[in-house]
Amino acid sequence: MDIQSSGAAPARDELPSPAYVVAVRTLCEFTARQGDLDLRYTPAPTAQEGQAGHVLVAGRRGDGYEAEIALSGDYGVLRVRGRADGYDRAANRLEEIKTHRGRLDALPGHRRALHWAQVRMYGHLLCRERGLTELELALVYLDVASRRETVLTERLSAAELEAFFNEQCERFLAWALAERSHRQDRDSALASLAFPYASLRTGQRELAVAAFRTARDGLCLMAQAPTGIGKTLGTLFPTLKACAAQRLDKIFFLAAKSSGRALALDAIDRLAAGAAGRLPLRTLELVARDKACEHPGRACHPDDCPLARGFYDRLAAARADAVAAAGRWDRPRVREIALSHGLCPYFLAQELARWSDVVVGDYNYYYDGNGLLYALTVTQGWRVAVLVDEAHNLVERARGMYSACVDQSAFQAALAAAPPALRRPLNAVRRQWSAWNRLQTAPYQCHPAVPAAWLASLQQATASITDRLAETPVGMAPALQRFYFDALHFIRLAEQFGSHSLFDVTLAPGRRPVSTLCLRNVVPAPFLAPRHAAAHATLLFSGTLAPSGFYRDTLGLPASTGWMEVRAPFRPTQLSVRIAGHISTRFRDRERSVPAIAGLIVRQYAARPGNYLVFASSFDYVQRLAEGVREHGGQWPIWVQTPDMDEAGRAGFLARFVEGGQGLGFAVLGGAFAEGVDLPGSRLIGVFIATLGMPQVNPVNERMRDVMQARFGRGYDYTYLYPGLRKVVQAAGRVIRTEHDEGVLVLIDDRYGRPEVRQLFPAWWRVGPGADEPLQRR
User: Fold this and answer.
1) What is the mean pLDDT of residues 209-214?
2) CB neighbours (10 Å) of residue 105?
3) 582: Cβ–Cβ under 8 A, 6 or more apart, which residues?
4) Which has the minimum average pLDDT: 29-33, 129-133, 637-641?
5) Coil, helix or strand for 744?
6) Keyword Translocase, does the record have it (predicted)?
7) What residue ranges do the domains of the chain occupy?
8) How confident is the model at residue 2 (pLDDT cuts 50, 70, 90)?
9) How many CA atoms lie less than 13 Å away from 481 in the CB half-sphere?
10) Of 181, 208, 295, 638, whose CB is crowded by the most CB atoms within 10 A?
């Protein structure tokens, strides 16, 4: 929590002193913010600029100036501590230094209120420590561009500062005591929490024991566990049980898809139901802004969105209502509370993250460069356990988080929309870009570094846009805005460019060729490692996490990370694994492979009618195979995934897999139906996979292969083989979902017979004879 408990709590009157330790900033963020939510873009200094600004201001002061003064003081059972920026003894002035860009009056009012509250709190602590009777307080705002200071001052007596300090502490302490009581009730209930079913499944118990030990001992663990054993409940339950003993503040359950988040919320509901409603656990669901927004198309400031007006004035009441109705703070519930108080649901959820026990959300909330949960973990000093669902997806997702592209066509649109004052710096970018294009000798090229002259022109252009926004924060043309933010992201990653990424240029032909410049992350390990280190414990689990070295290397996991393979609860006789080794599905062979694959599917379906899924490597191949089955005499129901299939279309596709049904669904391997889909019993009795699943051989993947080879000595395996077989095993996992299911898996490609491929199959698979003879029900 924001409050660090010193131990188990007796009744309020018996609490030791101090029972709570809280930072000045944390306390003031709770008690002092007021006014509107205003997210109009105002250029902010970087962390490095902020640190440099503090050093600059301190250097301008006299010899008697004290910088970075550690202060603390008690209010009853509350200990408040922090570090004041500077004290000028000669002037008897305490300073709080804040850096900014451009017009100071563009600073939102709620931030100004927070700054005054902080310096007043520090003022009281300084007066009490040094016996001062009065003090001048100063907010020193430093413009990092001009290096000009704007100083706002007030002089207060020690008595006035004490009254302010006491008022803030009393407002916070009332909440803190309630939070302490909640924490005690939560930990007590979790200590006695029982598993909601009579017993754990085979394999689920093994996973649960490992999860408990991971949380208990502060470890990092990768667990490969087969689909269908109940991984979500098998990881959440033991981690919750470890909360009290390990003083865990939060559990973050991170998933790649909404289906994974739904499973986590349902698992906690089952645990609460098993506790007969006596589980005081606050479970928050975080969703994307576009899904939570009540007024799409409007900006997040009081002049455009009514839910931003007076946001901080009404936040305390909404927060109190949420806590009073503790339980599942999912999207509908948060929306209900938010709208009842006239607040934005998305930003109310962001605030509730501070007061939740379990947060369920997407990977990006912790692993992205701007991840909310990671930032709060660091600033608040939380002790957290991170559960990463279907963790094999994190490699590709993290690559996207730490990659950036700038497109010359988008730049040209931005240039056309730019005001005259910005034309000069943008034209400099245009000239450098054109010169770089002339040096391009092929449509696609990798380069060892971003061109220095071009990058310098881009940095100057973004600085000019930033300065203009700081002076006239009235927004900008959408095309210019899009390019501006893309460019800022690109520049940030360019500053961290290294052997973990590629810099490549793709040139589109034409009378005036245009190019796209990409910083393409290949190995996200350097970016993810600090996030693993910030967590007390991390458990990554999936049905496909082998080989362990691949994930340890690419995800930046600690060298001490453990790995386990949970034994499957399934018998090898439940799944007939057959290889059609006489067919090649390589790109050059696809056309002539269609009749052979269609014949194989038709024979199997005729021998054992039911519901089957057929996976192929592309939408075109999928369509050809479906047509091939029809031409081969298959008159059964057929439904095919299409590139433009929306959420309703995907739901309709899955709805056709009914108990006792018959038909063939055709889908792309690695797509929406290849993982996270549960079709137990006769809803699905077989899967055909007509591909090895490996990424396409193209210039980009070949350069990625070079990076992998240079770093790990396993270029082909890390780029092609392991990612491909992971998709195959995930798709195959749709067949057997329970201990009572039976089905067939047909792997279609001659390469499935190779030892290096078969060693990546799950241990419980038993490969039978070839796929020439159809399998009937035993």
Assistant:
1) 96
2) 7
3) 596, 750, 770, 772
4) 29-33
5) strand
6) no
7) 4-177, 201-281+357-401+524-566, 293-355, 403-521, 572-758
8) very low
9) 11
10) 208
